[in-house]
Amino acid sequence: MIRYLFFILLFFISCEKKTAIHNAPEADKLYDEGINLLLKDNVEAYKKFQEALNYYYKTRDSSNISKSLICQAIAQKYTGDIFGAEATLVDALTFMKKGDESLYSAYSTLGEIKYAQKEYASSEEWYAKGLSEKNTSQKDKFDMLNNKGAAEYRQKKYSEALKTLQSIDLKKVNNINLKNRIKENIVYTQWLQDKNYPAQSEFEDLLKLKLKNNDNWGANSSYSHLAEINQDSNPKSSLYYALQMLNTAEKIKSPDDRLEAIEKISLVDNPSNAIKNFKQYKHLSDSIQSYKNDNRNRFAYIKYDGEKKEIENQRLKGEKIEKEVQLLWQYFISGLLVALLIIIIILYKKRQKKLQQEKEIEIKNTQLKMSKKVHDVVANGIYQVMAKIENQEDFDRDKALDELEFVYEKSRDISYDKIGEEKEFSKVISELIASFNSETVKTFTAGNSPAIWEPISSTAKEEVYQMIRELMVNMKKHSHASHVAVKFEKINNLLEIQYKDNGIGISGDLIYKNGLRNTASRIETINGTITFDTKIEKGLKVNLSFPAS
User: Fold this and answer.
1) Residue 242 near residue 227 (C-beta atoms within 8 A)
2) Which of 7, 107, 292, 328 could lock 80 by a disulfide, CB 3.0 to 4.6 Å apart?
């Protein structure tokens, strides 16, 4: 928790809003209101940022879009919606360019999220990415190095963690609380590396300094470490520090630290108190989870409601035009019916010729259908194999031959082609998207859980696989994108798939050509809809939606 508070201060400094000339003064006002509410009322702050985003999207202000999304992720992370925060940050990355001032903040938050998810290796990687970006101050770099060291010792990489932590020049650390945190992490890592290391006195000295400076968050960390190192050798002392941690956690209103303190108490307390400790732990754990679930649902509703209102506004504007068009169509159809009566009489006299023409058309349609399947299975399949070979450092010749043989076998019996029957479908999709990763292109997925595909029919899965592959192949060939994100989300009884990249985009007259024309045709076969958003400042956004049953 304390590590996260330091990052929030970093974000406010590194992403301070610059005065910009754009047509959304109301958006700036909402953004500022959200900043003032952040950490005070995170749900209301999230709502303000969502309202600001509705304006920023209209003006295609990618810089403020990414900053608003990062702030939303902070609100989600701070209230326990870890997975929601991660999805929001993936969305934010699609609006950022290389060297963007907000990249450091985004990478730092992703490091925090992965740390909270106990994915320490991934957390270390994001911290390393953050350190490679420009820093707003020396303090920010020191704080990031400290967090990276924590992620390393959580992986039992004690020597590397010490190297990272000891690379910080403590003489240049002016913030006393940060300096004490770094010192404590060094001592704790040394104790983890060697349980005989005399850490007790150093922890106690640091605890005194923290209490002297009214650093209750830091003191809470010291109580936790003192309880841990005394757990086996001196249970009575361990119990004392665990109780001190519990009292301090209640004082600073940190439910997660209270839960950790109760767990430490249970390990060394009198067995007669086991039931009482368990009940207290269970009650607090349930309360925390309920709080997190409530906030997760509220965040989802706010985002959904905001997007729904925007869609409704666009619908109302279109209704007026639609009514006018309908009137014109009525006149047109009346005239067309008269013309059709005349045409039917003529066509009746030429029935035999018409039947022959229909037969020829049917043959051509069959050929086109077969051509489409050859394009999907053979052309896209071979291009996917080429992409894997291009993006893999170690070329596996046998594996490539196996995949080409698979494409060959599929081409021999196209009419029975099925996707993803032998492997769990979410893995098939993840591997498909990941196969387009390279040094220049980074792909991200969100929401691709096995449960979301359970009600989907085999036919729909096959069409979804082909549509995603067509979008990825189009990106690889034409877009020059560096970030691609695909998000899956079930809303009501619809499965929503959102594709985004930050490439060169695509003009309206090219959308329905070649593979993308096939994509539009496929979504119609499963009673779905497709929307190409070409009005964003940079890149392409495609929304696919179809019934999830």
Assistant:
1) yes
2) 292
Looking up tokens 């930050």, which residue turns up?
502
What span, in angstroms and rounded, lies between the C-alpha atoms of 162 and 172?
18
**Token duo for residue 538:** 């940079």
Structural tokens at position 483? 């970030």
Amino acid at 384: Q
- Mapping DSSP to helix (H, G, I), strand (E, B) and coil, where does residue 538 land? coil
Q: Which residues contact 131 (CB under 8 A, 6 or more apart)?
A: 141, 144, 145, 148
Q: How many residues does the chain have?
A: 549
Burial group, residue 435, by CB count within 10 angstroms (0-12, 13-18, 19+): middle
Q: Are 189 and 149 in contact (CB under 8 A)?
A: yes
Alpha helices by DSSP H, listed for 79-168, are 82-93, 103-116, 120-132, 138-154, 158-166
Backbone phi, psi, residue 81, to 5°: -85, 75
Encode pLDDT of 15-44 as tens digits: 544 444 444 688 889 999 899 988 888 888
Half-sphere exposure of 401 (CA within 13 A, CB side): 3
pTM of the model: 0.51
**With contact defined as beta carbons under 8 Å apart, do 546 and 523 qualify?**
yes
Close Cβ partners of 300 (under 8 Å, ≥ 6 residues apart): 84
Question: Where is 444: in which H helix or E strand?
Answer: strand 442-446
What SS3 state is found at 493? coil
Three-state DSSP state, 74: helix
Note the Cα 495 to chain centre separation in Å.
17
Residues with Cβ within 8 Å of 50's Cβ and at least 6 positions away in sequence, in order, are 72, 302, 303, 306
Sign of the four-CA dihedral 70, 72, 76, 82: negative
Token pair in block for residue 335: 């005239």
* Distance between CA atoms of residues 139 and 162, nearest Å: 19
Structure tokens at 446: 């969100």
pLDDT tens digits along 221-260: 999 999 999 999 999 999 999 999 999 999 988 888 898 8
